[in-house]
Amino acid sequence: MRTHRPSYTLFAAVLLWTVSALAAPPLSSTWMGKALDDQLQLNFRSGEQGNMGLSIPRSAFQGLNMAEGTDTSFQLVREAGTVKFEGRFSGTEGAGHYRFEPNATYLGEMAKLGYTEISPEEQLQLALFDVGPARVKALAELGYTKLPHDALLQVAIFQVTPEHIRALAELDLRNLELDELVATRIHGVTPAFIREVKGLGFANPTLEEFLSMRIHGVTPSYVREIREAGYPNATIQQLVELRIHAIDADYVRSLAGDKKTGKK
After folding, report:
1. Is-contact 112 136, C-beta < 8 A?
2. Measured between alpha carbons, how far is 8 from 11 in angstroms, rounded to an integer?
3. What ranges do the domains of the chain cover?
4. How crowded is residue 110: how many other Cβ atoms within 10 Å of its Cβ?
């Protein structure tokens, strides 16, 4: 069973605190929403302090009607259950009430995978973030079994898909902890980025090095610029340190020019 260390998941922890620590929403309460491009940003209220927000593609809703000032009812059908909405839109913003109808079959399928104590509130969250048995089973087959509820939400929020895990493994990043996988999603350590960095000739960069490059803005083009400015053998750590101190290729070349002219 994989575990997840807290080193890379500060951002995830903050987001999940918003989702679950304030107060899990009841099976029915109020919602507010705003349409942005092809997404509907939804905010679910619970009591005076509870709050859960997420964006869902508008195409995922059935019967969504945003006509000005018209009463509307629409629904979000997921494996975990159906969220039914009623309300009204004014322009791109709307508000109303929602009700969650859980799917009993879902609980049976999840129980087969070792998840036997899913509360109604947790089932609602799993529905909203579209965590189904197929995804959970695929993760288990890769070694990520019986993940805690918050970890399942991280998987959904940051799109830690089985395909992403396998793609990283093919590029020699194997047996990663869940928090490390989440970090690759947060910071954009994609298979394409990994291949491009390796194509620069670095010998087997570690996940820590890939993350440092992304966090501090050490792009492949930056690497090439520094090399052309006179440091062809700079290591990833040295490049990160240069970037942290805002040293670019122009500055490196200026230092070389000062040395030639004897300036100090």
Report:
1. no
2. 8
3. 10-131, 188-261
4. 23
The whole-number pLDDT of residue 164 equals: 97
Distance CA 142, CA 213 (A): 27
Residue 7: which pLDDT band, with cuts at 50, 70 and 90? very low
Residue type, 73: S
pLDDT at 139 over 70: yes
Return d(Cα 240, Cα 160) in angstroms, integer: 26
**DSSP-derived pairing of the beta strands 81-90 and 93-102:** antiparallel
Token pair listed for 183:
């970090």
| Residue pair 40/34 in contact by the 8 Å Cβ criterion | yes
What pTM does this model have?
0.80
Q: What's the Cα-to-Cα distance from 141 to each of 162, 172, 218, 231, rounded to whole Å?
A: 9, 19, 35, 45
Strand ranges for the chain from DSSP E: 28-36, 39-46, 50-57, 61-62, 71-78, 81-90, 93-102
Helix (H, G, I), strand (E, B) or coil at 145: coil
Beta bridge partners, 99, equal: 28, 84
